[in-house]
Amino acid sequence: MKSGNTTPEELLLYAVTDRAWLNGETLYEQVEKALKGGATFVQLREKKLDEESFLQEAIEIKELCKKYNVPFVINDNVDIALKMDADGVHVGQSDMEAGDVRKKIGNDKIIGVSAQTVEQAIKARERGADYLGVGAVFPTGSKDDAEDVSYDTLKAICQAVDIPVIAIGGITKDNVKELSGSGICGIAVISAIFAQKNIEEATAELKEKTLEMIK
C-alpha cells in the first residue's frame, strides 16, 4: 500500500541543513531565509551536536517550518524525531531499516530513505518509505560517504517505485537541468542553499530552475 504522508509538490525543493556555513548567523535564521526563498521541505541534519542541543534546535525549527507550512524531518535520529514530534525522519542505508522506523514512529509520519540502487529502492518502498532520496547524482563535498548514482540508475529507480523520488548530491542551479526527464519530483540540496551569500535569493532561483527541470 502506498502511504500518502507527503506529496511530490512538498518534495520539490528539499533543504538539508548544515552548520558549516553559519558565519555568525544561527541555523534558525538561515532556515528561515531558505523558507522565505521557497524551500518546500526541511531536513535537520546534525552529525556532531549533543542530544540536548539537537532536541532544542529541532523544537525551534519545527515551529518555524510550521509557520511556513513546510514538512520538517530529522536526519537519522529517530528518538529525537519522536521526542519532539517531527513530521518524520530520513534514514540512510546504514541507519535503522525503514520497517523498524515505521514500527517506532507510527503510520502517520513521513519516512524518507536514501537509496543508490533499484534493489534498495524497491526494498525501502516495500518496508514503508514515503519517498526516496537518491544520490549522489553529481560529485559532492557535503557527504563523505556518498556513492555516485548514474542518470540511468536514477531513472530506473523512478520507474521501479510508485513513491516520490528526489535526487541528492552535488546539485546546483547550473547542473539541475541535467536531471530533466529522469522522473524525479524534486531535489535535495545542502550547499546550493546554505553555502550561498544570499540564501533567500539562491533558494528562489534554484526553485525556479527545479520547476523548469521537472516540467
CATH architecture: Alpha-Beta Barrel
Strand ordering within the main sheet: 1-2-3-4-5-6-7-8
Distance between the amino and carboxyl termini = 27 Å
The first-level CATH class is given as Alpha Beta
Give a quick account of the main beta sheet: strands, pairing sense, barrel closure: 8 strands, parallel, barrel
User: If helices are DSSP runs of H or I spanning 4 or more residues, what is the number of helices?
Assistant: 8
Pairing-aware structural class of the strands and helices? alpha/beta
CATH H-level superfamily: Aldolase class I
Which segments are poorly predicted (pLDDT under 50) over 5 or more consecutive residues? Answer: none
Portion of residues in beta strands equals 15-25%
Q: What is the helix content?
A: 25-40%
| Number of beta strands | 8
* Total of domains: 1
SSE series: EHEHEHEHEHEHEEHH
Shape: globular
Q: If you consult CATH, what is the topology? A: TIM Barrel
